[in-house]
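Hi everyone, sorry if this is the wrong subforum. Our group has a chain we'd like a structural model of before ordering constructs, and none of us has done structure prediction before. Sequence below.
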Amino acid sequence: MGLFGKKKVKEAIDLTSDRLIIEQLKNDDDAYITGLAKYMMEGSPLILNFDGLHIDRANKAIAFISGVVYAVGGHIVEINETTYLFGNKDVYSDGSVEQWLKNNLN
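Answer:
Right subforum, don't worry. Here is the predicted structure as tokens:
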């Protein structure tokens, strides 16, 4: 098709696959946090729990990953006061994240 052909249909995000990363953080090593952020940028949603980190370390990690989310136009969903879902903009485009959260966390 030409330049103004049909729009490409986005595939639904399969959150039951290996794409979803769920971690209870006990390590705030910069390389580890940066690695998680790279996975998120590549399309893997992150559900991160910060209970295992000292408050200052947790805030540092949250600030860093939040900055990456902002840079890629993504969103953050607060699951509870110590657990958050981070994802790039494509993760939220089809409603599957909200449906997964509703089915698995309520």
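For your construct planning: The beta strands are 21-24, 46-49, 75-80, 83-87. The helical segments are 30-41, 55-71, 96-105.
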